Amino acid sequence: MDDTGRVSVAGAGIDGAPSVRPGVPRERRAPDPGAHWNRPEQQHDLTPLARSGLLHATPVFGTVAPPRALSGAVRRLAYRVPEHRSTRWALLLAGDKLDVLEHRLAAGVWLLPVAVALAAGYVGVSRALRR
Amino acid sequence: MRALVYEGPYRVRVRDKPDPRIEHPDDVILRVTRAAICGSDLHLFHGMVPDTRVGTTFGHEFTGVVEEIGPSVRGVRPGDRLVVPFNISCGTCFYCERGLYGDCESTNPMNDLASGVFGYSHTTGGYDGGQAQYVRVPFADVGPMMIPDDLEDEDVLLLSDVLPTGYQAAEMGAIREGDVVAVLGCGPVGLVAARSAWLLGASRVVAVDRVEARLRFAERWAGAETIDLRRERDPISALKELKGGHGPDVVIDAVGMEASGSAWQTLIGRKLKLAPGSSIALHWAIHSVRKGGTVSIVGVYGPPANLVPIGVAMNKGLTFRMAQANVKRYMPHLLEHVRAGRLDGRGLITHRFPLEHAPDAYDLFDAKADGCVKCVLVPNA
Q1: What pLDDT, in 10s, does the model give residues B145-175?
Q2: What digits encode the pLDDT tens for the residues A86-129?
Q3: Does the CB of A105 have a partner CB in chain B at under 8 Å?
Q4: What's the CATH code, domain B2-161+325-378?
Q5: CATH assignment of B163-322, given 3.40.630.30, 3.40.30.10, 3.40.50.720, 3.90.79.10?
Q6: Cβ of A75 and B91 within 8 Å?
Q7: Among B53, B189, B286, B298, who pairs with B169 as Cys (CB 3.0-4.6 Å)?
């Protein structure tokens, strides 16, 4: 604090008047200066997995990691459940777990022929030793 | 291109990934120059956010140079330097027209919770983020701000999220001259909220955390008094004492769903996931703020329901304000604070890593080790 008892942080109180605060009033009616459309064009390519009750895809959407395999089926099911139901979010969390599992299994697929060869070798050697 | 890729809880890697492309006439492709790791990225990293898909690239705080523009883009050109808000907003929908850019209804088809967000799971639209060499930026004429020639990327990088979110947190507290303000959490957003509380006229600002280095940072960077949760067993009583037993006029929750401090909340919300995270920070806020006071929430909570003492809030006559920051609306005002040195965003950056070392950066930031407050990745070093 300074001698007058005010805090000496640079700019202290500079935005004290509500009229200078950028979020006041909370809602205002002013079109964005950058937008040169009344309604944006629609993104095409593919239809996103979207919430139940949405009649059209939003004008833009992300296209990363589309749903696939069993986790994708669970996610598709989840998005048919309204978002105010806990079931929807529980299904999405279950889909996440399955997704990770699928990824780990897929990453280990190259090990399968090696595992089969090792198992076959083990069985063969065991039989040979028994004779 | 090289990009950070999510491969499951606590596991991110840097992999080759196809370059992003123009998918809508108002898109641009940005070559990323700086990408910060946000505290809320850790919720993704921990697997706390539903529909976080393997293969997604995180990152919603970034700057970059325009590489390619869509056929309808008018306001930016290749070579322009941009800082990009974390919300993706169309500028003309019901919400954008009212200045509520964080609620844009044109960019997130997955739910009615919030706008699209870069690199923040399919719950916010399924967009890739900026922790990569390149990123697709929709509606480039609306959200991004040109970086002035006299400023470097790191000077304005945190205008993408941390500075607007922290400032809006304080502003939502409707702080009046002489108010006592408490901020829960001394991560980057909490630090900015504390600093902003001074700008808005607070007479006393108190920051609460359990990490020694961050408490010292709050004293130094935000000019705040501190309460150390490792020593203070009853934070609610300590906060109430700040104003003669009444409690602070405003309490800001800058912690969110992964707060520690309650074994019960941790078990229910974080371990068993029967609720979307722990809401203990909200408990502290509601119980400690004075009657008729304001609780401002910017900590991230997941859907659909938390264990919150709403009866206490009702009887105390509290006002709640909360939101994802409407970043675009705050950028010009906060740019002036940055220029004048009143909000030193660059000063929050404590660590820098090349993109290839992003997994190490996540581990360090997650552990809050080595005095880490803010990690920044340099993708095209």
Answers
A1: 999 999 999 999 999 999 999 999 999 999 9
A2: 999 999 999 999 999 999 998 877 777 888 899 999 999 988 88
A3: no
A4: 3.90.180.10
A5: 3.40.50.720
A6: no
A7: B298
